[in-house]
Each structure stands twice: as structure tokens, then as C-alpha cells.
């Protein structure tokens, strides 16, 4: 397969390296708004640097790619998704589809009108721990689920210039927790109550964003879930999910690199090598996700995370934003779903 990739920043270069090693890939075309960055990534991976236009028009050497991976700036995701759909190219896109619901729905309409393939990058669906938790819930090993707790904590804030373009903490960060909550439990969120704090670095206040957020979510079977996130967790990168049922409890993301120290005298101390970031923590999941996309593009696998799945997670994030601004519970029925 010949694969086109747009966006050679940190995650794009990581995906390019994974693709360059994959036995099903025999050609890699890399594009970026910064041609020099694309050229550097091409030299690193053995690919060819091209323009995004050349990918979609077939003007790149060898013709159009068999599929495209979109890792560009978030603001460009929807337009590239639409171009891939019109060109009949299977597309993988890092979340989100767009920063708002109208943009998301417009892009999905393009995909559905073309009958093309779109897989979204929610890598936690490919993480071994989340997979085991899903099995435990679905097979009844925990009994009736009553409580779920999710945590996502970044070790340091992103660059100030990124924040105004990110969509905010709920859409950019907690959206992963919202997708994992639906995927693991098999339930839908019916109501949210959310709040956030901009205490800490001034860049969050200047961007109109929050550095720390918390949400209480009610699922359609009465299960209660909490989701917390922060950009300022100096101990390290911490992503966990805890699920408690009437028969047992299970934790995802609890290992010898979890940046968590017990205050109990006989409890575990600080990890010797805490997780430094998402690429290190989820590297195997990212590789599995890319492999799944190639199989989807070849027609060998059903799409594990299509655009409508991404829309459900975004609707929860949108409801949380409304709740935070208006300081009230928000029913998911208040958020349009197209």
C-alpha cells in the first residue's frame, strides 16, 4: 500500500515511523504546511515529501495513495477529511474531526455522501488495559457497575500558542475519557455537570481555557462517572480508569510507571521512571491503531471507530463546556446530534 500522511509534527512523525516499518506499506508520501518539516520527516522515514494538493489530485509520483492519514493542525482536519471523501480515499484522522459541532457534522455529511471510510484516532480503544476492562464489564465480572472514575493528567502545559487552537480542555483532552467511558461500559451519557479552574499559569486565562477540570456524568443505566483532567501534573503523565461494581473493581493505567505515591507507610513509593507523556504511555496502542486502519482500508476489518463514534464523544465535551459556562447540569439531549 502507498499511504499519504498530512502533518509531520510530533504525532504525525510518530505515525510516519510506524507506517515506514509496517510490512503492508511500500510507499509513504508526507505533506506538511511547512515543506522543510515534511522533507525532514521523509528523510527520517524513507518517504517522499509532497504537497497535500498533490496527494489528493494524484500529481505525486506514482499517483494518488491508497489511503491517507491526517495529523495536521486541528483547524484543517475537516477540510482534509472532505477532500479524502471526495477522492474516494479511506482516511484516518487524529481527533477531533473539527472544533465544533457544525464543522463536525459537515465533515461527516461529506463522508457519508461519498460512502467513504473515516477512522478516528481514539487510541485508548487499542490499549491492552482498556481492552481488558471492557471485557470485564461486558462479561459481568464486576457485577452491576455503579461507579467509574477517569483521570487524565499532563505533566506540563502545552505551548501558549496551542491553547486557543485546541478547543479547550474538554474537547482536546477529556474527549479521550468520554470516548473510553462509552467504549468500555457500552452505555451512553445522559447528563453532565462540569466545572473548571484557570488557577495556575496565566496562559490558560489568556486563552479563555481552564488548566484543571472535573465532570460528573450520569450514564443511561444509573452508573455515575467522574472525569478529571489537568495540564499541570508535575509528577508525570497519568491516565487511569477505575471501574467499581457490586462484585469487584478493576483499574486501568495502574503500573510501576504510574506517577502516584502512596502515603501509607507500607505502600508503594514514587516510580523510578514515571510516564513522561502520551507517546511513551500509549506507543503500543498507537501502533495497533495504525495497523487496524490499514486493515480497514484493505477491507479486512470493520471500522473500529468511525466518525459517528467521535461525534458522540464530542457531544459530551460540548455539554461539559455548556455546563461549565452556565453552572448547571446539562442533558445530552440539549446538544444536537445531526
Can you describe what's shown?
This protein is 39% helix and 21% strand. With 338 residues, it is of the alpha/beta class. The strands form 2 sheets. The protein has a 7-stranded mixed beta sheet with strand order 12-11-7-10-9-8-13. Helix 4 packs parallel to helix 5. The two termini are 34 Å apart. The mean pLDDT is 95.
Number of domains: 2
**CATH superfamily (homologous) name of the largest domain:** Dihydrodipicolinate Reductase, domain 2
Strand content: 15-25%
Question: Element order, helices and strands?
Answer: EHEHEHEHEHEHEHHEHEEEEHHHE
Q: Strand sequence of the main sheet, in spatial order?
A: 12-11-7-10-9-8-13
- What is the CATH topology descriptor of the largest domain? Dihydrodipicolinate Reductase, domain 2
Overall number of strands: 13
Give start-end ranges of low-pLDDT stretches: none
Quote the distance from N terminus to C terminus: 34 Å
Question: How would you concisely characterize the structure shown here?
Answer:
The protein is of the alpha/beta class. The chain contains twelve helices and 13 strands.
Amino acid at each position: 500500500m502507498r499511504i499519504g500522511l498530512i502533518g509531520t509534527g510530533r504525532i504525525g512523525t510518530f505515525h510516519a515511523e510506524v507506517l515506514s516499518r509496517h510490512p503492508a506499506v511500500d510507499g509513504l508520501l508526507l505533506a506538511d504546511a511547512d515543506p522543510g518539516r515534511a522533507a525532514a520527516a521523509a528523510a527520517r522515514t524513507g518517504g517522499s515529501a509532497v504537497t497535500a494538493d498533490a496527494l489528493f489530485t494524484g500529481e505525486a509520483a506514482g499517483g494518488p495513495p491508497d489511503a491517507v492519514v491526517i495529523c495536521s493542525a486541528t483547524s484543517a482536519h475537516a477540510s482534509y477529511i472532505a477532500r479524502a471523501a471526495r477522492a474516494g480515499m479511506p482516511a484516518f484522522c487524529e481527533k477531533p474531526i473539527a472544533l465544533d459541532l457544525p464543522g463536525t457534522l459537515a465533515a461527516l455529511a461529506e463522508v457519508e455522501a461519498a460512502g467513504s471510510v473515516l477512522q478516528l484516532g481514539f487510541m485508548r480503544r487499542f490499549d491492552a488495559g482498556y481492552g481488558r476492562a471492557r471485557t470485564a464489564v461486558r462479561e459481568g465480572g464486576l457485577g452491576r457497575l455503579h461507579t467509574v472514575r477517569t483521570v487524565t493528567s499532563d505533566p506540563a502545559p502545552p505551548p501558549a500558542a496551542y491553547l486557543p487552537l485546541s478547543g479547550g480542555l474538554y474537547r482536546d483532552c477529556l474527549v479521550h475519557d468520554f470516548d473510553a467511558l462509552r467504549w468500555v461500559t457500552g452505555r451512553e451519557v445522559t447528563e453532565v455537570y462540569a466545572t473548571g479552574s484557570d488557577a495556575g499559569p496565566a496562559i490558560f486565562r489568556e486563552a479563555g481555557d481552564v488548566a484543571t477540570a472535573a465532570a460528573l456524568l450520569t450514564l443511561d443505566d444509573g452508573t455515575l462517572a467522574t472525569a478529571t483532567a489537568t495540564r499541570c501534573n508535575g509528577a508525570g503523565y497519568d491516565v487511569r480508569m477505575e471501574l467499581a461494581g457490586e462484585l469487584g473493581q478493576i483499574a486501568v493505567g495502574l503500573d510501576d510507571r504510574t506517577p502516584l505515591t502512596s502515603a501509607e507507610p507500607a505502600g508503594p513509593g514514587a516510580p523510578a521512571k514515571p510516564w513522561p507523556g502520551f507517546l511513551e504511555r500509549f506507543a503500543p496502542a498507537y501502533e495497533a491503531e495504525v495497523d487496524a486502519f490499514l486493515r480497514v482500508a484493505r477491507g479486512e476489518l470493520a471500522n473500529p471507530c468511525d466518525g459517528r463514534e467521535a461525534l458522540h464523544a464530542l457531544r459530551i465535551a460540548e455539554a461539559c463546556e455548556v455546563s461549565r459556562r452556565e453552572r448547571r447540569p446539562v442533558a445530552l439531549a440539549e446538544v444536537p446530534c445531526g
